[in-house]
Design brief:
heterodimer, A: 207 residues, Nuclear Transport Factor 2, Chain: A, four-stranded antiparallel sheet, 8 strands, 28% helix, B: 375 residues, Beta-galactosidase, Chain A, domain 5, nine-stranded antiparallel sheet, six-stranded antiparallel sheet, 22 strands, 7% helix, binds copper (II) ion
Amino acid sequence: MAVGATTGALLWGHGLWQRSGPEAAQRAQRAPEPGDPLTPQEIAAASAAATSGFTEHMAAGSLDLLYVERDDDKAATSRRAEAYLYDYAHDRLIVRTVDLGTSRIVAERAASGRQAPPSQREEARAAVLLLADPKLGPKVRQAYATAAGHRLGSAADLHLQSLIYPRTPCEAHRCLQMFVRLPGGRWLDTSRIVADLSAKKIRSLEW
Amino acid sequence: MRPLLALVALLALSPVPAAAAATTPTCGEPYRIDRTLPDGARWTMCWEMRNIEGLTLTQVAYTPKNGRAVGVLRSASLAQIQVPYDSGEPRYEDIGALGAAAIPLRAQDCPGGERPDQYVCVTTRPRGHAYFKDEPYASAQGDDLVVFSAFQVGWYTYLAEWAFGDTGTITPRVGATGSLADFTTTPAYGWPIGVGRHHFEESHSHNIFWRLDFDIDGRSGDRVEQYDFSGSGTTRRTMRRTALTRETAAVYRPMRWWRVVDYGVRNADGHAVSWEIDNSGSAQYRGPASERFTHADLYVTNYRACERLASENPTPRCADSVDKYVNGEVVRDPVVWVNVDFHHVVRDEDHDPMPTHWQGFHITPRDVTSTNPYR
Ligand SMILES: [Cu+2]
């Protein structure tokens, strides 16, 4: 599977977490009320506005949009979205607030050493790193083949889920602690490794 | 002009109290929940599946039977699930992106209810005796409106549930089910499961935090008070009220509870409307100094939009955990963070699929109605 930023950067709304199906279609048909979640159109508009100026970094894979959350600040008078971005080259979390009426960025906050939960695109990248690891990759493929009775098709077949791992050696880097459920319900033992998305490699934990 | 005049006349005859307008949720279908329970009490609110917090309920309002609507919560959601294992490692913070971890619910997962979206269940559930007395005979059954979602986080399935009672109670709780992590440890840190004494499954805690932004009929006027009843080994119990006027990290003790009160909102008896918080069901986990957010059972903070999670807060240029949100500010618009911990010492019964273990707390109306809310 191509998990590269080239596909991700162009297909707003596809790499982002959002629901498809009848509910999404229903949502799309009417203008949102003030207390409604973001519509797919609003998510797309906020994504485009929030990533303006970052296109090259995104294409190079050094920065990515994680997801877009509705800004629920009760002091806000207009409908707004918060786009979460991560800059892997400088290890900075960036949150850009977009006014959905004007599609303009109205606020930006950034900080190093601060993490937001992993995105689904990041989990896909972690699966690719895991399979590419010279020591662990073959073991994962072997465990998958044994459990499934057939070879692993793509990294996406691992359905990898993750949590942020914020402690040593990942205080400064963005690291994902991974969970992989094999076909049949058994879990891969991934408790002592993390995917370091800043360094683009798998690291072992010492404990 | 005639129809307009008629409309004006109609409005004049049935005045809508100002509060009713303020408590009407500003969301449309399928996000609006509006349920009148069998006894006549009504709850209205909006739901949203947020990327980070998952199921979030906003603009929660309660209308007692024959009463007027009162706004209770501006926003309510989970704020962290910390899972430290007893040997010291691993230590998970289970609020990843909960929205993406939501599990599609089947009809049988939502008994007697509706799924406004495949990830949310809205149903009504009997709660047993509302009251019962023999002379003169009086008996009734109570019901809860229940809103819940399920999330797959690693091995565990978490059921995030909110029960809204016909007496105005709110019971947030989380059920942990799914599978054990299967971590093998030494006898000091675990319990033998499986045949004999070979596999010691590691004990661990599920330390769950909820964020509750109370707005009793709007954001102004809300105060938090702590109540203690002194006197141990004596015949008397004396009530002591402590107004938490500044941000506070509070520790639970027997006979201690808190309430969020608005002295500007009164019931028919002239008493201030409030909701009481009972957090007596926690194992009170206390982590190392690097995890100070685990060092209290209830936090009161002044509202700040950037303060969203109890730890690993995802907002840049904002404090990163609830213990640091408590920094001496005067509380003008309280947000209450409730920490309920469960120490999971694994049993043979926890084999796959692990039976659900529940943890939560109780929010009870105090002087919202001036009499039994069922009458
Ligand atoms: Cu457990």
